């Protein structure tokens, strides 16, 4: 008869004991520096305790320097620092801190943070979220994931009409330097349909951060965003960690039922940071100097984005990842690996930008693998007709410039030369232009083709 009160009393005692244990000072597990180089240090005394990926802190001239274990051997552990190794000596204390965790929450909206979860905007401490989330975690179980959600509007006509996305999809933006990737991301951050945006800037120029926040993102865009930034001068570990920290923030917000738009610029700089870490850990260079671990890290990161678990109210992470192709080579190793993982790719072409059409999206080389499932039959017909017109216009452009084609020779070519410029004008869009939904975008495209047909 007294079993229920006894269980309640035991529960109260267990709760009180747990709270008391949390107030006790944490144990101090310490090793020492055995050797130090420019990019890494070797630590003794911790090799039998720590695991790869664990966090440690090294005593330097200005205090403790956070670092991460990147490799282990019988007699020592190798760690790479998140900052400069100024003041580190042989025998300097190394403290074990455990696995990397972040506590993001709704209070992080409108803030700019570094990959370790420290504020960069001078607005004071970050409020901690209700749950601590591990930074390194496996992707969700594929068998328990929800399917992709409804289509969403991105606010960029070239993408909404020719590369339509669904909620939870992952898309790559492939371009060489100076072709407008950052500008396109700013348009997406301001106009895309989402509850929260998480922006990850990996290896960006330091001067561009405030310009991006104030000019491109704006107060309204920043209010619904969390920005994770590691500039180009940051150590390789910090640049790599920016991608994992941004993914962790996105997962934490999506777990609360939100639709999160994750934009990462760029995966190439993430891969370069992973290559530096792999080489420092003793890995052999393989494809074009990239270490084997780079091509293992890419799917481990990218597969974490997408729909959450299949349950009512589950959120989703829609991912947009830029890839900086080397010398316009879209078959270089990182671009080729990423294209095989993601659910589609958008190609930005320098020649299109040089002709004055921005964003410089090459719609003929861009692809969304979810288009068949998110377009109505009449929309698929519109898109296919517009693609055919643009393709034929491109094929005949040289002959027209040389004066080798005579109007009236081929009705299909005449149609392409008449409608192509109007479709190109439709694809041109400035940052300040009104944002249209996907339905309105297809309606505008239909009007252009109908008006052109009427004037034929």
Describe the largest sheet.
9 strands, mixed
* Class from secondary-structure proportions: alpha/beta
Low-confidence stretches: 21-27
Work out the number of β strands: 19
Characterize the overall form: globular
Q: Tally the helices: what do you get?
A: 12
Measured by DSSP, the beta-strand proportion falls in 15-25%
Distance between the termini: 91 Å
Mean pLDDT: 89
**Rg from C-alpha positions?**
26 Å
* Helical content class: 25-40%
Keywords: ATP-binding, Cell projection, Cilium, Cytoplasm, Flagellum, Nucleotide-binding, Protein transport, Translocase, Transport
InterPro entries: AAA+_ATPase, ATPase_a/bsu_AS, ATPase_alpha/beta_chains, ATPase_F1/V1/A1_a/bsu_nucl-bd, ATPase_T3SS_FliI/YscN, P-loop_NTPase, T3SS_ATPase_C
Pfam families: ATP-synt_ab, T3SS_ATPase_C
Subcellular location: Cytoplasm
Outline the structure in words.
With 456 residues, the protein is of the alpha/beta class. The chain is built from twelve helices and 19 strands. It has helices spanning 3-23, 157-162, 181-191, 208-223, 236-254, 267-280, 292-302, 333-341, 350-354, 377-402, 411-427, 438-454; strands at residues 30-36, 41-44, 55-60, 63-72, 77-81, 93-98, 101-102, 111-113, 133-134, 151-152, 165-166, 170-175, 196-204, 225-231, 259-265, 306-307, 316-324, 344-347, 367-368. Strands 8, 12, 13, 14, 15, 16, 17, 18 and 19 form a nine-stranded mixed beta sheet that branches. It has a six-stranded antiparallel barrel with strand order 1-2-5-4-3-6. A hairpin with an 8-residue loop joins strand 16 (306-307) and strand 17. The termini are far apart. Mean pLDDT is 89; it is low at 21-27. It is found in: Cytoplasm. Its main location: cytoplasm. Pfam families: ATP-synt_ab (PF00006), T3SS_ATPase_C (PF18269). It catalyses: ATP + H2O + cellular proteinSide 1 = ADP + phosphate + cellular proteinSide 2. Residues 167-353 form the AAA+ ATPase domain.
């Amino acid at each position: 008869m007294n079993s229920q009160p006894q269980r309640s009393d035991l529960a109260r005692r267990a709760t009180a004991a747990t709270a008391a244990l949390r107030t006790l000072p944490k144990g101090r597990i310490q090793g020492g520096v055995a050797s130090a180089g420019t990019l890494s240090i070797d630590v003794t005394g911790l090799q039998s305790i720590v695991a790869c990926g664990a966090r440690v802190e090294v005593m330097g001239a200005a205090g403790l320097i956070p670092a991460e274990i990147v490799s282990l051997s019988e007699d020592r552990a190798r760690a790479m620092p998140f900052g400069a190794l100024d003041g580190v000596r042989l025998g300097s204390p190394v403290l074990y801190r455990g696995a990397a965790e972040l506590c993001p929450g709704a209070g992080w909206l409108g803030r700019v943070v570094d990959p370790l979860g420290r504020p960069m905007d001078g607005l004071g401490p970050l409020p901690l979220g209700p749950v601590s989330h591990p930074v390194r975690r496996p992707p969700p179980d594929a068998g328990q994931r929800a399917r992709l959600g409804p289509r969403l509007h991105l606010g960029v006509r070239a993408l909404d009409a020719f590369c339509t996305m669904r909620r939870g999809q992952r898309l790559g933006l492939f371009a060489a330097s100076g072709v407008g990737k950052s500008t396109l991301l700013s348009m997406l951050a301001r106009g895309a349909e989402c509850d929260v945006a998480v922006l990850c800037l990996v290896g960006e120029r330091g001067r561009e951060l405030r310009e991006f926040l104030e000019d491109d993102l704006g107060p309204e865009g920043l209010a619904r965003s969390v920005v994770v930034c590691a500039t180009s001068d940051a150590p390789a570990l910090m640049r790599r960690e920016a991608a994992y920290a941004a993914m962790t923030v996105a997962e934490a917000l999506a777990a609360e039922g939100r639709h999160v738009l994750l934009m990462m610029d760029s995966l190439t700089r993430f891969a370069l940071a992973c290559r530096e870490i792999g080489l420092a850990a003793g890995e052999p260079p393989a494809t074009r100097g990239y270490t084997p671990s780079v091509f293992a890290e890419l799917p481990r990161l990218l597969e974490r984005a997408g729909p959450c678990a299949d349950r009512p109210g589950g959120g989703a992470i829609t991912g947009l990842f830029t890839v900086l192709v080397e010398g316009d080579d879209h078959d270089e190793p990182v671009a080729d690996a990423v294209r095989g993982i993601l659910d589609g790719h958008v190609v930005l072409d320098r020649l299109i930008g040089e002709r004055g059409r921005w964003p410089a999206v090459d719609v003929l080389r861009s692809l969304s693998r979810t288009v068949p499932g998110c377009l109505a039959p009449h929309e698929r017909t519109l898109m296919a007709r517009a693609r055919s017109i643009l393709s034929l216009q491109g094929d005949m452009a040289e002959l027209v410039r040389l004066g080798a084609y005579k109007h009236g020779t081929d009705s299909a070519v005449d149609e392409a030369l008449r409608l192509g410029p109007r479709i190109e004008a439709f694809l041109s869009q400035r940052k300040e232009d009104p944002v249209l939904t996907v339905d309105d975008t297809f309606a505008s495209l239909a009007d252009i083709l109908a008006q052109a047909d009427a004037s034929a």
